[in-house]
Amino acid sequence: MDSNFDWKNYRINKYPMFAQYLLLAGTVLLSLAVFQGFGFLVLGAKYGMNNLMEAMQNPLQNLQYMNAIKWLQLIYSIGAFGLSALLIAGLKRPNPLDYLQAKKNINIEMIFYGVVLMTICTPLISTTYYYNQMIHFGSLDAVLRKMELQDADLTKAFLNVHTWKGLLFNVFIIGLVAAVVEEFLFRGVLQNMLNESFKNMHVSIFITAALFSAIHMQFLGFVPRMLMGVALGYMYAYSGNIYTNIIAHFFNNASQVVMAYFFYNNMTTMDMDKVEAPNWLTTIASAVMMIGIIFWMKKRSEQMAVKN
To answer: What's the pTM value of the predicted model, to 2 decimals?
Structure first.
């Protein structure tokens, strides 16, 4: 090996931010194609490529292939989001965990605030989802609504399990893995890069939240998912620790998975998919408390910084 080899020569910080964004987008898209292709080849050899494609198009009629689809999602989400985030973070700093803010000690107090924030914003998010459903997108409306129905069917097929093993697998994929890879990519990498560009935390948080929502390709739920992204963005900014986000994001996802399990196994009548008219009292209270928690996290982060 060349004794003059130095990883510093391969840092991307010396390039314009526009080039860095292109590298990030290209890495994610290439990784998605590679890992999705790999997943289809491996799983297609076992279950049949046509069966997998049919299961993705008509999931409720092909429940026997849902575990294969879950493995496929696991493979490409880790590759496209998780590994891409680690690669770009490693090209930004000698240790990628430094850039992601994943080397700091876990702060139990901030984690508590994060979980509370994810809980109290639920009524506000439900209200925005109710009204987001009413938005029409002109000539694209029919196409987008058809996509939304297909995604809803796939989600139902994912969540409709009747064993503890199936529940734990869903909690692992939808709860833990999704929380880790999405927080690494969006808050750990993208929000940090946008901060470098705009030098404005609020702009960075809202742009990241918009892209976080858009990449899910569910535009009838764009606004509520963006609101959740905003909450996660401020959580990351004020906690200064990616683990706070991961745990809060996991709590939000896992709680929905567990509630779906209870519903599909007749343990509760609460249907998470049912869209009801909003209760404005709880919506306003949710919004006020959400803002209050964010400001309190800001205050506590400043107090902790002074002590340290």
So the answer is: 0.92
